[in-house]
Amino acid sequence: MINAVVVLMSTPRPTSRPSDVGEANRVFANDYDKSETFPNPDHPTYWFKDWFYPIWLNYGQSTVLKNFFELLAEHFHQYNGEYARKLNMGEFLHFWSGAAGVNLKPLAITAFHWNEVPEWEQQFIQAQLDFPGVTYASS
Description:
The protein is mainly alpha-helical. It has helices at residues 2-9, 18-31, 47-58, 62-75, 89-100, 105-112, 118-130; strands at 78-79, 82-83. Helix content is 58%, strand content 3%.
């Protein structure tokens, strides 16, 4: 799924080459209604439709993806050029919010049924403390 998201989100519009636009359209058609049981096994997660596409559409298109990876590279723990561990959900939300420049928690509530997993909120609060250089407007 993440590869499909990178293809779409890194394809600028409308000045893209026709082959890039075609690939983005293919990814969009193929992945829009796909669901997974991660991160909340009690509810299907439509990663593309409910998370990545709204972020891409509303917060800078390919720039928001670039911002996300730049923030990770600058602030998240690395060891020998590799990330030391995977992000938890609170960190995931914090870094994406930083990339978008706004707190994306309202989107996470809808996309991931955020309020049904109490530890995610604690992780989010801790991420804000652990990574104060990642900033955004509150919602």
